[in-house]
């Protein structure tokens, strides 16, 4: 497990059986974006591992955070690597719907 956290945003990562799930907690915005990008980069570029972002504890995401998710999607699609999001909170799902990006993400049911 890898943990990265500050006062407003934390990430816990569990990798097993060819899959890495990144649990996001708190607020993903401009102030934490550089650290999150740096932390997630090795997982994004590992095309042999299924990457899952669990958003259950994500309380807020701004346009910078949405941009990061879209850049992950683009990179993973370019490598033909699996990428899913799961447990999207209602307020985040509403934002995804309003911005029209819902159709681009594959939502995985909880396992």
Automatic annotation (TrEMBL):
<dbReference type="InterPro" id="IPR003658">
    <property type="entry name" value="Anti-sigma_ant"/>
</dbReference>
<comment type="similarity">
    <text>Belongs to the anti-sigma-factor antagonist family.</text>
</comment>
<dbReference type="InterPro" id="IPR036513">
    <property type="entry name" value="STAS_dom_sf"/>
</dbReference>
<feature type="domain" description="STAS">
    <location>
        <begin position="17"/>
        <end position="111"/>
    </location>
</feature>
<dbReference type="InterPro" id="IPR002645">
    <property type="entry name" value="STAS_dom"/>
</dbReference>
<dbReference type="Pfam" id="PF01740">
    <property type="entry name" value="STAS"/>
</dbReference>
<protein>
    <recommendedName>
        <fullName>Anti-sigma factor antagonist</fullName>
    </recommendedName>
</protein>
């Amino acid at each position: 497990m890898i943990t990265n956290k500050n006062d407003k945003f934390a990430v816990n990562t569990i990798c097993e059986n060819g899959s890495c799930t990144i649990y996001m907690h708190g607020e993903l915005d401009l102030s934490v974006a550089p650290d999150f990008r740096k932390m997630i980069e090795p997982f994004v570029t590992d095309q042999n591992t299924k990457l899952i972002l669990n958003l259950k504890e994500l309380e807020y995401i701004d346009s910078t955070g949405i941009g990061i998710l879209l850049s992950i999607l683009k990179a993973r699609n370019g490598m033909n690597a699996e990428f899913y999001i799961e447990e999207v909170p209602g307020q985040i799902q509403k934002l995804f719907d309003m911005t029209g990006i819902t159709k681009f993400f594959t939502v995985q049911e909880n396992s």
